[in-house]
Design a protein that fits this description.
By secondary structure, the chain is an alpha+beta fold. It contains 4 helices and 14 strands.
C-alpha cells in the first residue's frame, strides 16, 4: 500500500442536491446540504489525523465505518476484498469516500461514492454504494480498464430497487467532476466537486427519466467547519429521509405510477 508521507486530511463540502423528474409528471427540487469527503486509507493508517471528525465514536457530527459495506469497524477491509473479488488488484492508493455523516447519531445515505485510486494517484474505479429506505444495500462497480478521467461518462444497468415510482428497467449514467482550488482535478484538494446520476428507463427516444446531482465546494474539515455545518443544518440527515417521503407524497398526488418492490438481485455488486 503506497500512501503519501503526510496523511491526507478529511474534507467537508457545502452545496446542494438537485433532483428532477421529467415524466410522466414533472417534479423537481433543490435543497442545500453538506457532505464528507474522507481519505479512508489515511484515516485508518493514522487515526490521530482525523482532526475534528469523530471517527467511529460518538459526536454531534461523526462518521462510522459500520454504516458501510458489511457493517464492520474497518470499511477499507471490506472494500479491498470487494475489489479483489472483482479482479481489481491495482487500486492500492487512497480511497476517497464521498458520503453523508451521522448528525446527532442519525444518518441515511441514499448513495455514497468510493473513489479508488492507484498508487500513482490515478483513478482506477468508483464504487457507488446505494441504500434504499427498506434497509437494503447494493453496489455498482464502475471500472473501465483504462481508468477514469475527470468528467468521463460511466454507465451501469439498474438492478436495485430504490423508488416505488420507478421500475428496474434501464440504466444509470454517472459523471464525476472536480475542479481543485489550484485548477487541477485532484479530488483530495479543496475546490468544487459534483456527482451526477441520470436514470434512463429505456423508453424509446424519451431521454432520461431522472436527473440528479450533488455538488459543493470543499474545505478542510475543522472544528470551525463542523460548527458551521451543525449551525446551518442542525438536522441535515434526518431531513434527507423526511424529504424523500415528502417527494414520494408529491408524486403520489400527481398520480405517477406505483410499482411493488421486486426481489433483491442475486449479487450484491453489479459491474
Amino acid at each position: 500500500m503506497n500512501l503519501p508521507s503526510a496523511p491526507a486530511q478529511p474534507l467537508i463540502g457545502f452545496g446542494q442536491v438537485m433532483h428532477q423528474r421529467l415524466r410522466p409528471a414533472r417534479n423537481a427540487f433543490t435543497y442545500p446540504t453538506y457532505f464528507l469527503l474522507l481519505p479512508m486509507r489515511s484515516l485508518h493508517a493514522a487515526p490521530g489525523h482525523s482532526g475534528a471528525l469523530a471517527h467511529n465514536r460518538r459526536g454531534a457530527l461523526s462518521f462510522h465505518d459500520r454504516d458501510h459495506g458489511e457493517g464492520g469497524d474497518n470499511a477499507v477491509v471490506w472494500l479491498d476484498a470487494l475489489l479483489q473479488r472483482e479482479g481489481i488488484d491495482d487500486a492500492v492508493g487512497e480511497l476517497w469516500l464521498h458520503t453523508y455523516p451521522r448528525v446527532l447519531g442519525y444518518t441515511f445515505k441514499p448513495v455514497s461514492f468510493w473513489h479508488c485510486h492507484r498508487a500513482d494517484g490515478t483513478l482506477r474505479a468508483i464504487v457507488a454504494e446505494v441504500n434504499n429506505t427498506f434497509g437494503e444495500r447494493h453496489c455498482y462497480l464502475l471500472d473501465p480498464p483504462q481508468g477514469i478521467a475527470d468528467g468521463q461518462e460511466l454507465s451501469a444497468d439498474k438492478v436495485f430497487h430504490v423508488s416505488p415510482f420507478c421500475t428496474l428497467a434501464g440504466s444509470y449514467r454517472f459523471r464525476f467532476l472536480h475542479s481543485g482550488s489550484q485548477g487541477n482535478a485532484d479530488i483530495g484538494s479543496s475546490g468544487k466537486t459534483i456527482a451526477r446520476i441520470d436514470y434512463y428507463d429505456g423508453a424509446p427516444q424519451a431521454g432520461p427519466l431522472l436527473k440528479t446531482s450533488i455538488s459543493g465546494t470543499l474545505e478542510p474539515l475543522t472544528a470551525a467547519s463542523v460548527r458551521k455545518a451543525l449551525w446551518r443544518y442542525p438536522a441535515m440527515t434526518l431531513g434527507v429521509m423526511a424529504r424523500i417521503h415528502w417527494q414520494a407524497f408529491r408524486l403520489w398526488r400527481k398520480r405517477v405510477g406505483f410499482h411493488r418492490k421486486p426481489r433483491l438481485p442475486n449479487d450484491s455488486v453489479t459491474r
